[in-house]
Every structure is written in C-alpha cells, then in structure tokens.
Amino acid sequence: MGMGRPREFDAETALDQAMEVFWRHGYEGATIAQLTEAMGINPPSLYACFGNKEGLLKAALDRYTKLRNVWMDGVVSAPTAREVAERMLMGIADKQTDPANPPGCLLVQGGIACDSGSENVPFELAARRAQNEDQLRDRFVRAKAEGDLKSSSDPAALARYVSAVSVGMGVMASSGADREALRQVASVAVQAVEAQSAGRT
Length: 201
What we know:
Number of strands: 0
Mean pLDDT: 88
CATH topology of the domain at 67-194: Tetracycline Repressor, domain 2
Largest sheet: none
Number of helices: 9
Structural class: mainly alpha
Order of helices and strands: HHHHHHHHH
Helix content: 55-70%
C-alpha cells in the first residue's frame, strides 16, 4: 500500500501559530521547539523557510500587521476624531481581553526582555507601532483641516498620546487587567481627545 501524500504546508496557518507563540512568550521566551511544534514543521524546515528565528518573527509580524491594518482602516474611517479614538481604544480593550487571543498586544509583548543579540527586535516592533501612529496622525490632520478639531490642536501629539495609551493598555492586559479596567482607561483617553474637538471650551 502506497504512502499517503504529506500534508501541504499552509504558510498563513503556520505563521498564525508562530504569531501566537511569540505573542504569549515574547521573542526571547519563544523556543524553537515551541515554534516548530505549533507550526507543525521541523527545525530544518523553519530555517530553510525563514532563515532564523528573527526571520520567522518578521514574517509573523508581517502577517499580524496585515490583519491589524485592515482593522485600523476601519478605525480611521470613523467620522470624527473622538470616534476614531473611541473605536480604536475600546476595540483594543475588547480584543486584548478576548479569551480567544493571548492577552495584550504582540507589538508590545514580542519585545519584552530581549537579550543581547536580539537588539533589532524592539526596534522592529516599534517601527510597526509607528505605522499605526502615522495613520492616526494623518487622520487627525484631516480632522483639523475639516474643522472637527480645534485650530490650536496638535494632530501629531494627539496621535502620539492615543498610541501611548494603547501601548499602556497592552501592558495592562498582559499583566491580567480585565476588560472593564481597560475600558475605563479608554474612556478617559477618549474624553481627552474630545476636549480637543472644535466647539469645546
């Protein structure tokens, strides 16, 4: 009796599994054994496909960023700056405490406790976070031009503030904070953005 065909390698599924391992354990905490077991491949295949562990992380981040960008497109499509902040931060509160996902944010968790030799990892993660901040800045620039934000508002600073809050929420979630705690933080931040809206005194 002939042997059955080997299961085809599904790159997206494998990257989703690797992404979850990095998300749960961080770059340093994720071992090659954990990654290959989750992906259903052996170490030589991992190195052949991705070069090394850092190459796998970058591929997993590409996958994560692609999915997150779809979500961010929905965030910045909100009609006002206040609603943009609300949609983003309340969405983060829900996503990062969803039992279906590891707690927190991969773009925060992935770089925790990186040793020497992995210096590039925190910079890679920071660059990915900066992409979201840039999207927010561009949206707030438009909000100011449209008269939604005060003429005295600083769109770049506002985007940096919302991004910083989102990172802090990721740290809180990874430390065990529940959804209600994150939503309380989000609510205060949304009020801060609303205070920059035109017509507010």
